[in-house]
Design goal:
Layout (H helix, E strand, L loop, with lengths): L1 E9 L12 E7 L16 E5 L8 E6 L1 H4 L11 E7 L6
Antiparallel strand pairs: 1-2, 1-4, 2-3, 4-5
Length: 93
């Protein structure tokens, strides 16, 4: 699981029928030293399937790979990253 910050959303003209009712977000992964600061390093953004309603600027927990599609079992969804939580506060010790 990764922690990421939402930086935008994706607009699709066509999508797989199993993906109706949710949206796709663009986010950047965060390292532990970036969690409590406004200054973020420029890293490669990735696309995440969201059913929870995360908005731009939110910190989210992201499940990837097989874990991303696990919440939908036995249904099959063609996703590789899923918003599993919207984080209110993160404390790093």
């Amino acid at each position: 699981m990764k922690i990421a910050e939402v930086i935008g959303k994706v607009t699709l003209s066509r999508k797989h029928p199993s993906l109706a009712g949710a949206r796709w977000l663009v986010a950047i992964p965060l390292k532990s030293d970036e969690l409590n600061t406004k200054k973020k390093k420029k890293t490669e953004p990735f696309i995440i399937y969201d059913e929870l309603g995360a908005t731009s600027g939110c910190q989210i927990a992201v499940s990837e790979g097989a874990e991303a599609s696990a919440p939908f079992h036995p249904d099959v969804k063609p996703i590789d990253a899923y918003v599993s939580a919207i984080l209110d506060q993160v404390e790093v010790y």
